[in-house]
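Forwarding these from the shared drive since the link keeps breaking.
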Amino acid sequence: MLISSPIMAQEHEGGTEHKETEKKESKFNAKEVIFGHVLNAHEFHFLDITDGEGHKKPLSIPLPVILYSPTKGWDFFMSSKFHHGHETYQGYKILTDETIAEMPEAERKNYNPQQIVAVNAAGEIDPTVKVYDLSLTRNVVQMMLALILFVWIMLRIAKKYKKGEGVTTAPKGSQGFMEPIITFVRDEVAKPNLGHHYEKYLPYLLTVFFFILINNIFGLIPGSANVTGNIAFTVVLGLISFVVILASSNKHYWGHIFNPPGVPMGVKFILVPVEFLGVFIKPTALIIRLFANMVAGHIIIICLISLIFIFAGLSPVAGWGVSPVSLAFTIFIYFIEVLVALIQAFVFCMLTAVFIGQAREGEHHHEADGHSTVAMDDAVIV
């Protein structure tokens, strides 16, 4: 409000208006960078290389595209055929932020970046053709790589135990690293919440813990995908836990929901619907907690890095001046994210065990060895 500058009106081409448009188009787009990293994509994009003529050449790894259309049938090709959204291939086109921005405002809400759509001979979107995208996106590929690594590590450790290594002698190498973690999950998560039934659920709890942890760590590698920051990933994990919780329930659990003991009849009309909703709220809390925590950290890191380019767009001196501060905070948040990756894997595993223990309510008894489960009130879980 205190600083102003004169603006010269210009009606013909090549004037101030044209220059301002070019400047706006070349300006750093933080929103595009942030969502380009957080959202799913058909390639692993690392960086853009600018040649002598000012053209950007993305450095990326293309991924397989698998499409099915009732009209066109099946199509298989690599995502590089789209040339990063600049060309069409076999009647299909991948949308980018630029193509969506050029659409009428009423149509933008119907499309998303990295969405593959059918086009007509003129290269325009054909909404009459339905497209089912079954491609191996970077989230899918990275999740498969994490799964392969997870299975390989566990089979390698199990093979050593079968040979007697780590049984009669002290564990070595990967055994020595993994055994304390497995023991921690068993003694601090499974036993206190599931009592003498812990062995039945320990394989699932360990699988969930390590699968989330490996994907969290993978997501911290520059250029990789944030798999656990994808709501579809956390929804599947939450639904699997939901099925396990329901399969572990008994008549005592459902009796406390639909007929809470020691509660006046008038209060039951209010309490029963709340308790019934709680059955679905528990897995929903697992889904949202993991998704929100993992995606938030990545957005914060990219925002801090983006400050350098935003200030550099205003003034090169400002860009260099804010760089040390931005990098310092980025490194700090990055180490925090490593801690969050461990905590979120533990929290998901812990709450799953707690909810399973609540579903088995009525079977638990106080024992002297302390390995039985005491039903926990929902208010304890924050």
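-- next protein --
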Amino acid sequence: MTQKSKKTFSIYLWKLLNNPWILSFASILVLFIMLGTKELWTQEWRWANIAHQMMLRHDYFHPFLAKKFYYDKPLISYWLMIAASYITGGFNLWALRLPGVIAALITLWSVYALGKRISSKQTGMLAGWILISMFAFLFWARVANTDMLNIAGIMVALAWYFAHRDRPTFFSYLVFFIILAIAALLKGLIAPVLVLVALTPDLLYDNNWQKHLKLSMLAALIIGILIYFLHFGLQYYFNPNNDTVSGLHLVYQENFLRFFKPFDHEGGISTYFLALPLYSFPWIFFYIVAIGDTLKHWKQKTVWSRWLAWANLLIFAFFTASGSRRNYYILPMLPFVALFIADWVYNHVDAFTKRKKWASYTATSFFIINLIILGILYPIAYNGGGLVPFAKEVRQTATQIKPWKDWTISILDAQSRTFFYLNSPNLVQFIDAKNDAQEHPTRKTLLLSFPILKNNPNHHILIIRKSYLPYIQDILPKYTMIAEPLNLLDRWVNEDDPSLPVALVPKAFSSS
């Protein structure tokens, strides 16, 4: 390829990346492709179990994880997953993950709108491409939890603020505070706090905060606060089980106490210095150069470029100052990183610079890599086994004896996520093994932990750890044993995982 053809290709590629229809198609493709392929992952089972119990209990204001009242996250994320189940035709992996990928799309278009407002249309477009070429952004968008919902709330609020900051009305204030109230009910108060942190440089610049001190803003703020507290009132009013645990107390615990006096997740001060490069890869190299260039030419930068720089710095400082640190807490910074890089790449005197060429190559290359990982490697890795065929065989075996709705299930210290695939119409019982049974399993310690092994009803399926089977050999002839077949990934990572679930389906059944 000649130098001229290379330049022509680079310019053509850059034009493609600036087509909003192509960005839209690419975003939908990479977010939705094979969304239900990857098995339920770690924390996803919490959302699955809580939402499932809400439906079975017909109580949508009191979240339970296993047997315990569990209100470390607000309720809307569970409601969204339940609502999605009516779209996907059942409570499945697509239902769990659909709110997250929709939130990612909302984030992308909020970033585009914000970039267009403060810089240019091309800046917003490039920021969108940067996000969908970050594997970490796509990975967490496709995980059933609240993180992407939280990011979407933050970016929608900021996009709305900058669209109306110069001509604010009561309506614009009202929408802004309603957005913040809803965002606070998605993950917690972190959303409105981060919005305030990000807006601080703009509010302080030229005393902009003074023009917002008006009765219309105060009235809208009060309405927003009332909307936030409304759902706590509904939780108190609709209380069929007379639960006494206060959602507001858990808001204090999860948002304030965790920040100042953390009780878990106490990562070191270097946590985000290591996490941000990993999560923003491959764009961390652009980010470092952009920071250096911004510092070097600070006086020549626009007001908006300076705001982006300050917003990045303050958000990073806020997370680092928190006593509770986990690597994925830094996720809300990714849209700001993308905007900062895009602003640096595009706002240059040259019509087509090396910055733009390498940005377009990087965005395209890593978008394709991510598409291959999610659309090809994921299906291969989870092929040939896992919990899907395991649950199917359990159901088929059990329904040959009696209808599935008549069976109850206990999970005896086995993988908690197993319940989701069994899709029982009844509440599943989770029983943890006592410490001595986990550390030194014997027949005696297992029977002390799981008395149900002594006298198990013949309509009751037991799911137990594979490693416990040798100690209960005498009761096994009463059951049909079904083990989870290993998929390709499991066989590659660990051929003989002792924690894998084994189902014990009673062979005999009587109507007594």
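The chain is about 60% helix and 5% strand. The radius of gyration is 26 Å.

- D.
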